[in-house]
Amino acid sequence: MYYFTALITLAALLFYASLGYDVAKARGRYGVKAPATTGDAHFERIYRVQMNTLEWLVIFLPCLWLFAFYVSDLGAAALGAVWIFGRYLYKQAYVAAPETRGFGFTVQATAAAVLLIGTALDIVLRLAMGD
């Protein structure tokens, strides 16, 4: 069973849902009516955080689950927690001053890369060993 990975998946989805809530609030606060995605610069930053996180979820979630299956449930969950924390740092920085988002981006990208490369290496090693 992959309980830890499942909990982190839920946490990542809740984090993403909170970003959607932030966008909805920002639409009202800055007067950006749907379906518009441009207008006030503060709204655009909040919107871009949500969209960028969605783009990364497509990479993160499969890597998270593959790592859990092939390498470690607890390891996947720990790296998943780092990814969520990195996305949070990214959000805080991007909304305040987009040019400062680099650290949060690096944290989450590194966690995703470890999940991806760790899974790939494990699979290759298993194939090489005839497992």
User: How many strands in all?
Assistant: 0
Strand content: under 5%
Categorize the overall geometry.
Answer: elongated
Give the overall pLDDT as a whole number. 97
The H-and-E topology, N to C, reads as HHHH
Rg is 17 Å
Ranges where pLDDT stays below 50 over 5 or more residues in a row are none
Helix count equals 4
**Secondary structure category:** mainly alpha
Give helix % range: over 70%
Let me know the largest β-sheet: none
Distance between the termini: 21 Å
Explain how this protein is built.
This protein has four helices and no strands. The chain is mostly helical and 131 residues long. Helix 2 packs antiparallel against helix 3 and helix 2 runs parallel beside helix 4. The radius of gyration is 17 Å and the shape is elongated. The model has no long low-confidence stretch (mean pLDDT 97).
How are the secondary structure elements laid out?
Blueprint: H1 3-30, H2 41-70, H3 73-96, H4 102-128
Q: What keyword list fits this structure?
A:
about 130 residues; about 85% helix; single chain; 4 helices; mainly alpha
How would you summarize what this structure contains?
With 131 residues, the protein is an all-alpha fold. The protein contains four helices and no strands. It has helices at residues 3-30, 41-70, 73-96, 102-128.
